[in-house]
């Protein structure tokens, strides 16, 4: 687990962290501009990378025909990823998002027939009655502290198909793991906590350790060079593909 000092153990601090996230979405319009933090020019390279990643996983049989039957998009916003990426490959997609305005907006902004359910729920409280071949979590875990993320990872492990995949696409701090050296002490890499805006940027190693703790094994990870080229100066964007074991 990550250094507990960084993850707001006091109840008041934790509530303030999540209140910052809620305030941003409650006071912003339910649009792509909001869910991309004003960086709408990243939408095209982001979609291109994600489609390429899924094709790679299908071609290598990491995503089987069984896995293609149903996917879950968690923290889905207005449904951009479901509409422009997941609907191209999966027979059915369920969308889970805690902000009601974003879910309502998804009906018109992301109307694809393959999006079957649009569920208003916090991710940690969502317990489905079906299994998913793939769970996609994009730019959402960076708004969730370790305590709640631990619950979410445990739940996701339970509703993934055998050998199902969890895809985490987010900003990370590069470290020994992203450099291909495994998880080793790295004094130059440490997580960044911006509690005033409800944001935590984990190191790659921190994320991998959490995944391992809750029954996942990293299958591959890829750096989104297209997004990084389109927006200089942001924290590196990676997709971590973890298999349920």
Give the helices and strands, then pairings.
Layout: H1 11-26, H2 32-35, H3 43-59, E1 70-74, H4 80-84, E2 92-97, H5 100-109, E3 115-120, E4 132-138, H6 146-159, E5 160-171, E6 192-194, E7 199-201, H7 204-213, E8 216-223, H8 225-230, E9 237-244
Parallel strand pairs: 1-2, 1-4, 2-3, 4-5
Antiparallel strand pairs: 5-9, 6-7, 8-9
Outline of the structure:
With 245 residues, the protein is an alpha/beta fold.
Walk me through the structure.
The chain is of the alpha/beta class and 245 residues long. The chain has a single domain, classed as Vaccinia Virus protein VP39 (Rossmann fold). The chain is built from 8 helices and 9 strands. A 7-stranded mixed β-sheet has the order 3-2-1-4-5-9-8, sandwiched between helices. The chain has a two-stranded antiparallel ribbon with strand order 6-7.
Neighbour order of strands in the largest sheet: 3-2-1-4-5-9-8
Task: Provide the gyration radius in Å.
Answer: 17 Å
Strand content: 15-25%
What's the total number of strands?
9
> Considering the protein shown, what is the CATH homologous superfamily?
Vaccinia Virus protein VP39
Which runs of at least 5 residues are low in confidence (pLDDT < 50)?
1-6
The major pleated sheet works out as: 7 strands, mixed
CATH architectural type: 3-Layer(aba) Sandwich
Q: How many separate domains make up the residues?
A: 1
For the termini, the CA-CA separation is: 19 Å
Q: What is the CATH top level name?
A: Alpha Beta
| Total count of helical runs of at least 4 residues | 8
Structural class: alpha/beta
Q: H/E element string? A: HHHEHEHEEHEEEHEHE
Keywords: Methyltransferase, S-adenosyl-L-methionine, Transferase
Organism: Aduncisulcus paluster
EC number: 2.1.1.244
Family: Belongs to the methyltransferase superfamily. NTM1 family.
